[in-house]
Design brief:
alpha/beta, 5-stranded mixed β-sheet, 14 helices, 5 strands, globular
Length: 275
């Protein structure tokens, strides 16, 4: 008997997937689809306190990867070096960027042999590898390299571009809490070896390694976007505190929108997350 057959026979469970789905990205995709209707986008912006004007640069994006994709469009190694130089302000950066591409890639721990021709995307840098090359550098510089690498990896669930310079960054949660970095046990061990105590709550606040901290660094500092941040959650308190990301229930957000054109499975999922 397969798993579904056992569940049906033993527990009388025979659901469609939409009835049990707990995947945050699926719910974000449904919200994204709903927001692609212009009237829904206007309603959503109004409730978020923005002028509901959909100009030529307006756009809504799922799994937002601007940094990664912009890097891919740049052919010049000199431009890539300039991006690193101006945004990764560590003591040895000018020296490192004089090297050949393959040497730069290896210094920052790119896996494999590393490209001999191109300065590779910082998302491919490896903490476990570049740690060995920066073991004598300060923890401050080490953290800057980590944050820069992570910024090229993170993908906010939904980003609404009001225009080219203003955005709303939405993080969708089902049951999980806000994440923080580093996330892997191996990377956490490296932090401990360097004497960076991730168990110290006050230190973690100072280091700004929460998910929204990294998103803010990416959106505002690296991309230069004026950005408002939001969390969509199932439970807990809704709030709109100055200087903090706005917290909105899924039920509230979906309640702002016309869901009439969504297929039945999507409506069922909206009902489930709105309970």
């Amino acid at each position: 008997m397969n798993v579904r057959e056992i569940a049906k026979k033993a527990a009388n469970l025979s659901p469609n997937y939409c009835e049990i789905n707990r995947e945050e990205r699926n719910y974000a995709a449904i919200l994204f689809a709903a927001l692609c209707k212009p009237e829904n986008a206007r309603r959503f912006l109004e409730h978020c306190g923005f002028e509901p004007k959909l100009g030529p640069d307006f756009g809504i994006y799922l799994e937002y990867s601007y940094l990664r994709d912009l890097w891919n469009e740049i052919d010049s190694n000199e431009i890539k070096k300039e991006i690193i130089r101006r945004n990764l302000r560590i003591k040895r950066i000018d020296e490192i960027l004089k090297w050949r591409p393959i040497e730069i890639n290896k210094e920052f721990g790119v896996s494999g042999d590393g490209s001999p021709e191109f300065v590779q995307n910082p998302r491919n840098w490896s903490i476990s590898k570049f740690q060995k090359n920066f073991k004598n550098d300060s923890n401050e510089d080490f953290l800057k390299i980590c944050r820069f690498k992570w910024a090229f990896n993170i993908k906010p669930d939904i980003v609404i571009h009001l225009d080219k310079n203003n955005a709303i960054c939405i993080e969708a949660k089902y049951e999980s809490y806000e994440g923080s970095y580093p996330s892997s046990p191996a990377d956490k061990e490296i932090f401990e070896e360097r004497g960076i105590d991730l168990k110290n709550k006050e230190l973690k606040k100072t280091l700004k390694l929460k998910q929204t901290d990294l998103q803010e660094y990416m959106m505002t500092e690296l991309l230069g976007l004026e950005t408002k941040f939001m969390f969509l959650v199932r439970k807990g308190k809704e709030n709109e505190k100055p200087g903090k990301p706005r917290v909105v229930h899924w039920k509230t957000a979906f309640g702002w929108l016309d869901l009439g054109d969504l297929p039945c499975f999507a409506i069922e999922m909206v009902k489930r997350i709105s309970k």
